[in-house]
Specification:
4 strands, alpha+beta, Endonuclease I-creI, about 40% helix, globular, 7 helices
């Protein structure tokens, strides 16, 4: 009989799909925060409670990566954390300081990631039903 991996370990071997990666990247450019030590880093998403629908949109888009559903997280915030994943160590190096590799970030960023970033800083509002399948594909195009 084979050994069954704990889901938190198994998730670390699943790469984010292009849509998930753009939500992650846009969040890190906005209000998202990497927490934890190397090889245990997670993404923390938190927004004001009146933006709960937006938090749920991110939660839904990140699929298997969140460890629990969004919940109140101090003061007037609602949010969630992802499981630890190696991609967060890679992104931590990319965002290591104020002299971040902007050239690399620009090459990785797609329209959806830019939209998430702008939503995080309050310049735009995304809604779960805002994208048609063709628009979703266009948002991820190079």
């Amino acid at each position: 009989m084979g050994v069954v991996e704990h889901p938190k370990v198994a998730i670390s071997r699943i790469p984010p799909d292009p849509l998930q990666f753009q939500v992650i990247l846009g969040s890190l450019l906005g209000d998202g925060q990497l927490v934890g030590l190397p090889r245990e880093r997670r993404l923390r998403i938190a927004h004001r409670v009146e933006r709960r629908e937006y938090v749920m949109w991110k939660y839904d888009r990140l699929g298997p990566f969140p460890v629990a559903a969004p919940e109140p997280c101090g003061g007037d915030l609602v949010g969630f954390e992802t499981a630890s994943h190696p991609i967060f160590d890679d992104l931590a190096r990319l965002f290591a300081n104020r002299f971040a590799r902007h050239d690399v970030i620009e090459r990785l960023l797609r329209p959806l990631g830019l939209a998430v970033w702008l939503c995080d800083v309050g310049r735009l509002e995304l809604r779960a039903n805002a994208f048609l399948p063709a628009q979703r594909n266009l948002a991820l195009a190079s």
